[in-house]
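Narrative of activities, Objective 1.

The group set out to show that a structural description can be obtained from nothing but a protein's sequence at a throughput compatible with the screening campaign. Below is one input-output pair from the validation batch, recorded exactly as produced.
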Amino acid sequence: MKLLEERILRDGKVYAGDVLKVDRFLNHQIDVEFLCELGKEFHRLFGNCGVNKILTVEASGIGVACLTAQYFHCPVVFAKKSKTSNIGAELWAAQAHSYTHGTDNTLVVSKEYLGKTDRVLILDDFLANGCAANAMLSLCEQAGAKVVGVGTVIEKAYQKGGDGLRAHGVRVEALARIAAMSPTDGIRFCD
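Output recorded for this entry:
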């Protein structure tokens, strides 16, 4: 998506440690009108798949998931990174490693909000190693929900996550695919 690539080049910053900071518009400060455009694109890509639920992970995926859900007219469920006292005891749970935070999390979703009748679009802001996406796939599998695909705003295509999911038959759609990036050389997108 050219609009997104231009925005990443304009407002994104590459830091050592393979970090792309896009918090000016995507995951700290949110440009709502811009994310609505991303939501329209996800709807264009997955609109004919019968999506009745969008699943993401707290917290960075929530913004794009909510602004996308308005086009699907469906709810958003976000996997919590820890069990809270008000979530109840009946949970689906899966492990995920967070590269950004350097922690392992147990993602949980109430069984009340994810089940056999759901056709799920998994959305997140980034796809790199695929840990969060694989954990959300596991949650859906446990629930008996049908996953129609994984959508990501930005895929670090030089890492294994996207290719690993595709190799297992998962439809993956990235609005921007980064082939390489470094603080000195900048960002190069896939063709």
